[in-house]
């Protein structure tokens, strides 16, 4: 009997592959990329800081972002049972309360790593963790309102990660105001990216009371809103870079934006059917523009 009980306990533990699936490595790229944009925009040479850069990349992706995925899947397990029943929690591959335990453990680990990188890095990471829980967990559960929920995700995935990367390079200090401005604008743009992700779960969201923008506005209007959120901040970036006397960088972002607009026109004809298509193709030009902007700020920070 004792051996049977022990076997049951062992079998109740999730397999490492299920835990990795819960943490969703494919979602780690945007904050890791934004972190590296912050590193570039700081204008500080990486000499002697490679360890901090590597740890910061891990903090942005496999820690803070992964935490947000675990938290979201735990509190969305009933929605996922409708939309994507094969996910680790609704499928039973992560049984019992293991999803919640993993979310709490990853939160604590993320905070501990961030604390070692300086006060502003710790503050940014802590805010990102708070937003991750506020997005999914009651009583706030910001995702019930697509406007607030997507804003929380955008700032967590793009702006805070960018600021963290710059802070790591400046010894944990608050980055330059120009860096903060670009991080803010690309965070607003990420609101539209988050809306694209909501198209795949319209049925489950509608049935469980999650007011994503496709549910609130309908697919056509939600698609238009997503495009405006992505395009308008990039227009502002082009103007700002031109004002900062970085015309070639401004032109680069403008060209990348023009490609996105061409793709948006096709997306808007059938937004529900083409949201994943646009996410896979159009977002690449958005993130390339982030890097071009980061190099523009770096050029201003580094004497020629």
Keywords:
single chain; 304 residues; mainly alpha; Farnesyl Diphosphate Synthase; 14 helices; 78% helix; 0% strand
Overview of this protein structure:
It is a single chain. The protein has 304 residues and is an all-alpha fold. It has a single domain, classed as Farnesyl Diphosphate Synthase (Orthogonal Bundle). It is built from 14 helices and no strands. The N and C termini lie far apart (75 Å).
Mean pLDDT: 91
CATH class: Mainly Alpha
Order of helices and strands: HHHHHHHHHHHHHH
Structural class: mainly alpha
General shape: globular
| CATH architecture call | Orthogonal Bundle
Q: Which segments are poorly predicted (pLDDT under 50) over 5 or more consecutive residues?
A: 4-10
Q: What Rg do the Cα atoms give?
A: 20 Å
Main beta sheet: none
Number of strands: 0
CATH topology: Farnesyl Diphosphate Synthase
In the residues, how many domains can be counted? 1
**Helix content range of the residues, please?**
over 70%
